[in-house]
Write a structure and sequence with these properties.
The complex is a heterodimer. Chain A contains 7 helices and 5 strands; from the N terminus they run αβαβαβαββααα. Chain A is an alpha/beta fold. In chain A, α2 crosses α6 and α5 crosses α6. By secondary structure, chain B is mainly alpha-helical. Chain B has one domain. Chain B contains 2 helices and no strands. The radius of gyration of chain B is 15 Å and the shape is flat. Classes of the chains: A alpha/beta, B mainly alpha.
């Protein structure tokens, strides 16, 4: 369990809707630029594996996790909240509490507004919940500061530097996709994640 | 001193430098395979980067 990958992996539990894509993609980039490996339920396309089992495996193989509760709100069609994000946060908290090898897990929890979570999941009171205000730049700064603090790793660039690199990457991405005859939206998580890593590797030389 | 020696050795072996500190930044690649193919993505990035030079 406590292998090198566990120390490097950051599980990202965020909404996958198009409205959230700007924040999600900036977070994936920030994790990579900070020297960690982003992990996400969308990286595995094996439909034979039960979704919850896949998520549990990703959680137990990642020392760090980012959970965004900002989309826990009533949908227009059913007037019910989507509860996948709080459920996965609960699995992660259970893993940290009960798994003997995972007590050093560190979680970054986002919500849209301060104290909003107390209205739907008051048991989280006492946890440090951060607000990104739907701003990718703010989310990147929080992710960077949290990883720097929790890992103790030196040499992680500042939030502004990471975001500036992210903007440069976004400027190149349409051309990269054109070379691949793809739209940006066609990239799977595995493709997007690899593209970020290769772009970062290319641009540090 | 040992750290400086290790860094110098890394640079002799082609490790890239961080703009400020001169220390190599580690970029971790995904453990899951890309669906497009890693080499295809490598070449696409190389072409975009070379056009900008």
């Amino acid at each position: 369990m406590r292998d090198e990958e566990y120390e490097q992996n950051v599980f990202i539990n965020c909404p996958f809707d198009s409205e959230y894509a700007a924040i999600f993609e900036a977070i994936v980039f920030a994790v990579n630029d900070a020297g960690f490996r982003p992990k996400c339920a969308r990286e595995r396309l094996d439909s034979s594996q039960i979704r919850l089992q896949k998520i549990a495996e990703l959680i137990s193989s990642s020392r760090y996790s980012i959970h965004d509760l900002s989309r826990t709100e009533l949908d227009d069609v059913h007037a019910l909240p989507r509860f996948n994000m709080p459920l996965e946060l609960g699995i992660d908290l259970g893993c940290k509490t009960f798994h003997p090898d995972c007590s050093d897990k560190s979680l970054l929890i986002f919500d849209s507004e301060q104290y909003r979570f107390q209205k739907f999941v008051s048991d989280l009171s006492g946890q440090d919940i951060h607000q990104h205000g739907n701003s990718p730049k703010v989310a990147v700064a929080h992710v960077r500061n949290w990883l720097r603090t929790e890992s103790g790793k030196s040499g992680i660039p500042g939030g502004a530097a990471i975001y500036a690199r992210y903007e440069a990457f976004r400027a190149d991405l349409p051309d990269i996709c054109a070379e691949l005859n793809l739209e940006i939206g066609d990239l799977t998580f595995a493709d997007f994640s690899y593209t970020i890593a290769r772009w970062l590797d290319t641009h540090q030389q | 001193m040992a750290k400086n020696r290790a860094t110098a050795e890394a640079h002799r072996n082609g490790a890239p430098r961080n703009e400020k500190s001169g220390v190599r930044r580690v970029i971790l690649f995904p453990t899951e395979p890309s669906t497009i193919g890693d080499r295809k993505i490598d070449r696409a990035i190389e072409r975009v980067v070379s056009r900008k030079k």
